[in-house]
Amino acid sequence: MTDAFVTGGSGFIGGRLVERLVGEGRKVRALARSDTAAAKVEGLGAEAVRGDLGNRASLAAGAAGTEVAFHLAAHLGEWGPWEEFERGNVEGTRNALAACAEAGVKRFVHCGTEAALMAGEPLVQVDETAPLRPDSRAPYPATKAKAELAVREASREGFETVALRPRFVWGKGDTTLLPELVETVEKGQFAWVGGGRNVTDTAHVDNVVEGLVLAAEKGRPGEAYFITDGEPVVFREFVIAMLRTQGVEPPDRSLPAWTAAPLARVAEAAWKFLPLPGEPPMTTFRSWLLTQECTIDISKAREELGYAPIATHERGLAEMAQLAS
Question: How far apart are CA 106 and CA 4, in angstroms?
């Protein structure tokens, strides 16, 4: 792999990817839409390129002269106007594809998500033959599915595209999931749903970065690959372990699993039509995440990419505890 262009380089996964690429001696440019983002990627050793996913000129300038692009920037969240998810995830991805192709990039690696398959049913030992769900009722899954479809359809000779789908990304430096869990517990708002006994796969951030690098080197054009830690966990047990690395103990309080979906419908309607400040206490997407099994078969990544997890649960949790101490 030669010089690289990264979108989302100031984020959790993107920052770790930039750090690895620079550490391997590669020249990296990273899109930065703010002074804060620019300072972060420059601190990691990348060249910051000011712009955003709505500006094809800045995307093309960042990609010029590079051979591989990693597209990690996305509009995250469980709630918000559909048009914001469409603009960030679908239009932004199409802009990145067009700009990188125009700039002569040879390979485009898209960081997708298992959520692109979520539409209300559990995902049990799914593999890459399971369909994407652009028809999902939740905006994040629907728009990430559309984005991946655009990526895979864009693959052609001279401009190869590959999609990677990590599940439940965690690890040292997490700026979203763990801080939100800690805040919810500390505010006394935390409760398990259905006891938190659902089984889930996870993906340590270092394993995701390993998958991204392998996808750039070995991924078949137009294909998608799931990436996980390779060992499913019980959601409740893993969340408790993560929180304990921060010295936080969650309560035993639990809501029946059957209440999640109707609560989400009522809450989303109230926040949409009143409207109310902040986000609903329960959303359709969150109800799926909190109550449904999500286990994944990563045989394809193992066989075609040569992927094997490089970070274990034990190592990752120890690093998080060390950082907090």
Answer: 10
The tokens for 156 are 């052609």
DSSP label of 233: E
Structure-block tokens of residue 282: 């329960």
Scan for tokens 């070995």, then name that residue. Answer: 218
Provide the residue count of the chain.
325
Rounded Cα gap, residues 150 and 180, in angstroms: 31
Q: How far is the C-alpha of 268 from the C-alpha of 254, rounded, in Å?
A: 21
Beta-strand relationship, 199-200 and 233-234: antiparallel
Q: Which two tokens stand for residue 306?
A: 């040569």
Q: What pairs with residue 109 in β-bridges?
A: 70, 162
Q: Which of 171, 195, 168, 203 is nearest to 252 (CA)?
A: 195
The amino acid occupying position 324 is: A
- Collapsing DSSP to helix, strand or coil, 23 comes out as helix
Mean confidence (pLDDT) of the chain: 95
Low-confidence ranges of the chain (pLDDT < 50): none
Residues classed as catalytic: 140
Q: What is the DSSP string of 69-117?
A: EEE------SSS-HHHHIIIIIIHHHHHHHHHHHTT-SEEEEE--GGGG
303 contact partners, CB below 8 Å, separation of at least 6? none
Which residues lie closer than 8 Å to 188 by C-beta, 6 or more apart? none
- Specify the CATH number of the domain 4-173+202-230+296-311: 3.40.50.720
The residue type at 320: M
Helix residue spans in the chain (DSSP H): 12-23, 35-43, 56-63, 82-85, 92-102, 139-153, 177-186, 205-218, 235-244, 260-273, 284-291, 299-300, 313-324
Output the six-digit token pair for 17.
């990817």
Residues 6+ apart with CB under 8 A from 217: 1
**Pairing state between β 68-71 and 4-7:** parallel
Q: DSSP letter for 65, please.
A: T
